[in-house]
Specification:
Radius of gyration: 25 Å
Strand order of the largest sheet: 1-2-3
CATH topology of the largest domain: Four Helix Bundle (Hemerythrin (Met), subunit A)
Largest sheet: 3 strands, mixed
Number of domains: 2
Number of strands: 3
Order of helices and strands: HHHHHHEEHHEHH
CATH class of the largest domain: Mainly Alpha
Structural class: mainly alpha
Shape: elongated
CATH architecture of the largest domain: Up-down Bundle
């Protein structure tokens, strides 16, 4: 059983929250897409109900929410850069779509724009943009500068968080076993040592290590993670090691993966 320290619980919560956010974002996006395309099929004109009652571009908003969930679930620098870039691309696409809608529907859509927010009620993004870059006459230049500044700030913040995370990473070296162990959640050296000792009592583990030693391997890197950790494939290839991961294909397991915060075991 993995330790339940506050840091460990928080780490698991962020992972589960990211998956839930991603799933909810995709689900809401599909609802918005159904609303738009069903209206087109029935030739109902401008969609202004349900999701579109409060914001003009709910589909882009929910894709952004799903992207944030993916970033929390699978935090990588390239995903962060893609995410920030994606937000600006969504803004440009939304503006392009609005020009098309104005050309097609005229004043009815203009009236809709005047009393409906673009992405979030209250337009917080527009207010921040105007306060920081409103002094620039060229809107294209202002938008380009905002993109560069956003990339720099988010990347710098990510590097800072990365460095802090590494400094707090639980890692031990066991020279007698020629093994370095890293835990994906914070825990004490004693707890990690105990987990490794228990693992070495398993005949399958001992046989696998002995086999690797006979092949000439001089040392080993071991990752310690919760049993239900959903990204185990990033650390190991069970089919090559001769060991199999437990497969759960029940409806409850699927729901638990998509919406982990709704699952007891998350």
């Amino acid at each position: 059983r993995m330790p339940s320290s506050p840091k460990a619980v928080f780490s698991i919560f962020v992972n589960s929250f990211g998956r839930t956010l991603f799933s909810l974002g995709i689900l809401a996006f599909l609802i918005g897409a159904f609303q738009v395309y069903s209206a087109k099929f029935r030739r109902k004109g401008v969609v202004t109900g349900i999701l579109y009652r409060w914001i003009r571009h709910p589909q882009y908003l929910f894709l952004a929410i799903a992207g944030l969930g993916l970033l929390l679930f699978w935090p990588r620098f390239f995903i962060l850069i893609l995410y920030v870039s994606m937000l600006f691309v969504y803004y440009l696409l939304a503006r392009y779509e609005e020009q098309r809608m104005l050309a097609k529907h005229g004043e009815s859509y203009r009236a809709y724009m005047e009393h409906t927010a673009m992405f979030l009620p209250g337009e917080p993004g527009a207010k921040i943009f105007r306060s920081l870059f409103g002094w620039i006459r060229s809107k294209k230049l202002a938008l380009g500068l905002a993109y560069v500044v956003s990339l720099v700030l988010f990347t710098a913040g990510a590097f800072g968080l990365h460095g802090y995370t590494i400094s707090k990473t639980s890692i031990i070296y066991l020279p007698e076993k020629k093994l370095t162990a890293v835990s994906v959640i914070p825990q004490t050296d004693e707890s990690m040592q105990s987990i490794i000792d228990i693992a070495f009592q398993d005949s399958a583990v001992s046989a696998a290590i002995e086999n690797l030693q006979q092949q000439g391997h001089k040392g080993f890197m071991v990752h310690i993670m919760p049993r239900q950790y959903m990204m185990q494939a990033l650390f190991a290839q069970p089919d090559m090691s001769g060991m199999r991961m437990r497969s759960r294909r029940s409806l409850g397991a699927v729901i638990g993966f998509i919406f982990p915060l709704l699952s007891r075991r998350g």
